[in-house]
Structure formats: C-alpha cells, structure tokens
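Quality-control log, excerpt.
Job 1 of 2 completed; input and output follow.
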Amino acid sequence: MFCATSLETVDISCDAVFQPEMCGDVQEYGSPTYLRRNEAEKCSIHSTCFVPVFSKDQTSTPVSVVELTWHEKNVAFENMLRRLHSALQEVNLQMCDVDVLAMQTGLKKLSLGDSPSKAEGTS
C-alpha cells in the first residue's frame, strides 16, 4: 500500500463501497475525496480499484474492502481481479461479480466543490 513504512489503519465507510469502484487517476481528485491523494502523488499511483469482500455466509455487508493500486493511468484491473477472486475463494471469502467494462469509473464520494483537477487547490 503506497510507500508506507508502517502499518496504517484506514477508516473506510463500508456503506460507500458495496459495489466495486474504479478510478483511472486518483491524482485528479482533492484530498477530501481521496484521503491518500498526497501519498498517491508521492508514490506515482494513478489507477485504483476498490473491491468489497464478503464472507460466504454473509453477503449483505462486506467484511473488508481491498484497494488495488497501479502506477499507470486508466488500468482495467481485469487480471488482478481474477487473481483476487481465486485467492479469496481459497480462504472461504468472496467478492461480487465484476464486469470491468460496465464498471463506472470515478470516485462516488466526490464532494461538492471538489472537482477533479490536476493540482490540488487550483481553480
């Protein structure tokens, strides 16, 4: 996860991530929308994909959310999602079916006044 030198706890509201979510360039958003924007810029992270993880017997509420990141812009994550799906099945976890081509890109929690821009704080 980024260039972290220690384990971090990130507060993610599960109700915000019940469906997979993908973004082609998180650096276009300000910190209020993507809280780790500064770290993403520092580590040259652009693409991200959030995937809710469910237990086999509890599919209404995620038990976790996995964030996949990549240095290039507009990554589709198809191969990584297939590998994640297989790995989760091995430990009796699952994710919802993901149609990468139909998945809407962008961050759902775009705040008012937080329009995508290359430089944070510029208009």
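Job 2 of 2 completed; input and output follow.
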Amino acid sequence: MTEENLKIAVVGLGKMGLLHASILNVLSNVELTALCDKSVVLRRFLKKVFKKIRIVDDLEKLSDLGLDAVYVTTPISSYFPVVETVYLKDIACNLFVEKTLAAGYDEAEKLCELARGFGGVNMVGYMRRFAVTFKKAKDLLDREVIGDLVSFQAYAYSSDFSENMKLAKKDDLLAKLHLEPRQYFVATIHRQENVDEKRRFSRIIKGLKRISDEFNIPIIYPIHPRSTKRMKEYSLHSNGIKIIDPTNFSDFLELEYNARLVLTDSGGVQEETCILKVPCVTLRDNTERPETLDVGSNILAGTNPQKMVECVKIMLKKDNNWENPFGDGEAGKKTIDILMNRVQKNE
C-alpha cells in the first residue's frame, strides 16, 4: 500500500456500490482497480461508464490484482460469504462493508474474528453512528449514566411515514385520477441499470403493457425525470400505461396503499408495500430488502416480460397476511416496557 495510490475494488454494484465506485473513481490518491458483479446486464452497463476499469463476474478474479482494500456493497444476505472469501483468499486485508455487517449475530461475530486475525482496517459504513442522538446515547452508555445495555430492538421508519399515512388515506389523488381502490397497478422504474440500458428498459415497458392487457387493469406510472428522458431517447411508447408526473411522498403512499399490486425497482417501495400489505413485484435480479422475499410480500421478476406476467399472477394469489419484518413503530414503548420490567425485577 502506498499513500499516493490505493488500489481498491468494489464488489456489488447496486445503488450504494455505484455511489461508492463513483466517489472512489475521482479521488486523487485512489486507483479504482476493479468492479465485481454477477449481473450480466449490470456489467455491460459498468463497461460503458467505467471504461478503463476491470469488470469481473467472480470475486476470486480479484485475487491477483494486489488490492489494498475492497468495498463490499452486495445484498446483506451475501456479506458473510463475500467477506470471508476476501480474507481467506487473501484478496485484501482492508475492508469497507456497507451496513449492516452481516445478516445475523453469529455471522457478524465470525467476521469480527476473521478481521482481528488478518489485521488491517475494517469498517462498517453505518452513517448513523455520527448522528447527534446516537453519539449522545453512546456517550451516556460509556459514562454508565444509564447503566448496562440490556436490550436493543428497533426499526427506523421514514421519519415522515406515519404522518403521511394519515394523508394517504384521504383518497384525494385517486379522485383526481379517476381511480378506484384496488382497481389499478402502480409502477416505478428509475434505477440506472434499468433505464439507462435501452434493451432492458424496452423489455420492462413491453412487460408492463403485457401485464395491463393480461389483467385488463390500468398501470399508473409516476415517472422519474431520468426515465422520461430515456423514453424519449429510445422512442418508447406508453400504450396501456398511464404516465403521470412525479408525486410527493404522501400522494405516492396514497397510490401504493390503494393499489392492487406494485411493480418497482426501488428498495424503499419494496419496504413500503410490505408494511402496507400490498403485493410487490420487483423488476430487478436482486434486492437489498431480502426480508420482503422471506415473508412473501415481494418477488423478483427481473425484466423478462413473460416472467413479469407470471410473477404478477403469483403475487395476486397472495392473502396479503404476511408478517411485517420492519417492526410496528412501537420501539419506544417496547423500550420503556423492557426497562420497567428490569427495574421491577431489581426492586
């Protein structure tokens, strides 16, 4: 490793991976040496954007590059095997892992043991650790002002989610669009790997048209400016798809809440539909919300038009009674209950 030129690779080029790669690529003391992703479509896209950088489909192909560090930004469920391989195959001894470290405590503990054994710098990119409230809580724990940490159980909804849900149930936008609850689908497509690839975006639009025809139902598409630009550039037509301007958050929640089904490439929308008990079909090959697959609120369709139709059929048969893995918004009350029980036991 030299101070002048750190050789770094990024593994997993979804939203966060692309963000990190773009930043690393412009740092004066970094040589972005390689990008690794299993998706053929994504690698094709990467070759166009990162023209002078090695693009590989397998992690072990990084082992002969003399890397100083590796950024791991794959889906959380794959963190453990990826990080383990980086260490055991001696690909690099310095690692940055996107939040969280692993899918479970046991895996996280094993990765920490590996990190201690191999040395180097190892970091988990959890941005909240520097937030004022989190720093204050840590300070109170460090100074033993509030005693030992007994239990931690919480999930952070969007700060506006609960309040906006009240507005979402008013049905104002539905009336404006002449829609009835459960009588339409919603689509959101905006990710780079989907809309910046003509063939991939064309297949998605074709699939949406086929779905609209198959189920005789309108598809409402609040279109992202990037997608609008690409549709014009690729001469794609929206027959069978009702395109509307981008909405604010409460209006979009209204559309989601009342939809019969949602088709999306957004991580946040996968999460929201799970909470709202609305079936979701994800137009991607992977997801950073694997818990939605586990509980059955979501399915991966990719961009094959026929598979999109088949996945819609599967999700429409769901009872929508899946468990919400993202909590119930009652973390504060639960924390108080735990503390009160602890105090009562010690009395």
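Post-run check on job 2. The radius of gyration is 23 Å.
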